[in-house]
Amino acid sequence: MSNEGKKVKTHYKGTLDDGAQFDSSYDRGEPLEFTCMAGQMIPGFDKAVCDMEVGETKTVRLEPAEAYGEHNPALVQKMPRSNVPNADQLPIGQTIYLRSGSSAPFPARVVEVTDDSVSFDMNHELAGQALTFEITLVEVAD
User: Fold this and answer.
1) How far is it, in rounded angstroms, from Cα 30 to Cα 18?
2) 130: closest CA among 73, 59, 77?
3) What H or E segment, with its residue span, contains residue 46?
4) pTM, full prediction
5) Whole-angstrom Cα distance, residue 132 to residue 42?
6) pLDDT tens-digit map of 29-76
7) How far apart are CA 88 and CA 23, in angstroms?
8) Closest of 133, 125, 123, 129 to residue 44, by C-alpha
């Protein structure tokens, strides 16, 4: 039985290869709800849930291509420091939100601040990493 196109609710815990937890629906106290295989989730998570049955728990390890993709060096950009308000107050590693023209704000991590420029990494923070999810299917609705 496929869950494709159905609204599902899952509880999950996500960890990195070193065992560090990066996310958990249990910590938020409610399951994650999404439409299975509708592109709302990373591809590997969607695929893992597609053929699960309510009450089933499975553990899947996703390579970067099935998660947030490989780290893309082209998404690390330098901007003139004069174009960045309060550049001297930006801590390395902090995520801020940038806007390009009339686009919606998007997250970027501060990777370097020099006298002349500020470098931002616009890759997803988990890009390039393998992720392990322990997933329990809680509910399926047509």
Assistant:
1) 26
2) 59
3) helix 43-50
4) 0.84
5) 12
6) 999 999 999 999 999 999 999 999 999 999 999 999 999 999 999 999
7) 31
8) 133
Report the amino acid identity of residue 88. D
Please give the structure tokens belonging to residue 89: 């107050």
**What DSSP string runs through 18-37?**
TS-EEEEHHHHTS-EEEETT
66, 58, 21, 34: which is closest to 135 by C-alpha?
Answer: 58
Q: Which token pair is 22?
A: 């990066």
What is the C-alpha to C-alpha distance for residues 105 and 108, in angstroms, rounded to an integer? 10
Distance CA 91, CA 88 (A): 8
What is the C-alpha to C-alpha distance for residues 60 and 112, in angstroms, rounded to an integer?
A: 35
Would you mind telling me the total number of residues written for the chain in this entry? Answer: 142
- Interatomic CA distance for residues 49 and 36, integer angstroms: 7
Q: Closest Cα to residue 97, out of 86, 109, 87?
A: 109
* SS3 state at 8: strand
